[in-house]
Amino acid sequence: MSALGIFVTYLTIGMALSAWVWIRGLELGGRNGIDVAILVGVLWPFLAPVVLNSDEVPRQARRDGRVDHLARAIDQAWIRLPGTGLRSQDRAVVDSFVRRLKVAEQRELDIERASAEAPEAARESLARLRAESASEVSRGVALLEELLAQLTVLRFVDQDVSVSTERDRVEVLLHAIGVDLSTHESTVSGSGLADRTTH
Fold this sequence. Notes:
This protein is mainly alpha-helical. It folds into two domains: 3-57; 61-197, no CATH class. Helix content is 85%, strand content 0%. The protein is built from eight helices and no strands. The protein has helices spanning 3-27, 34-42, 44-54, 59-63, 66-79, 88-117, 120-156, 160-197. The termini are far apart.
């Protein structure tokens, strides 16, 4: 193969691996930035084994921290919204909701780890508990993603009527988050009371 052919092959592989690293970084919440992707593209003969082995991280571990990621983004979006009429009580509700989702997210991970060493008789129940936690986290994440999107829209509107309309939409989402939080707290309290009355 000619020197030009070797160079083209090197460049093609480097660009492909660089793009893969960048896309993977977006999927993992920005863990691998464009600077890392470029570095891998240039030095791929040396770094490719490390990068490819890092893809063996369990899928569940990749999902860990998505609530934190959204919470930080919402925090930044909220700071950039002066004078929109959103109340500090609304922010407190969101913070409580995020704390509850973090607990559920950690519980899902704990149950998955426990399932790996659990006796056969317990695995069906553990699978049910894990599915419940996963569903709770997914619903919560969907609400947070929608809230983040709506806060972003509110940041860029510049007419009074539009601001009022978008603020109303944010308040609808905040109400939904508050209802979800209250329902969960009532369910937990009810379960605790039932446990005490049966002992």
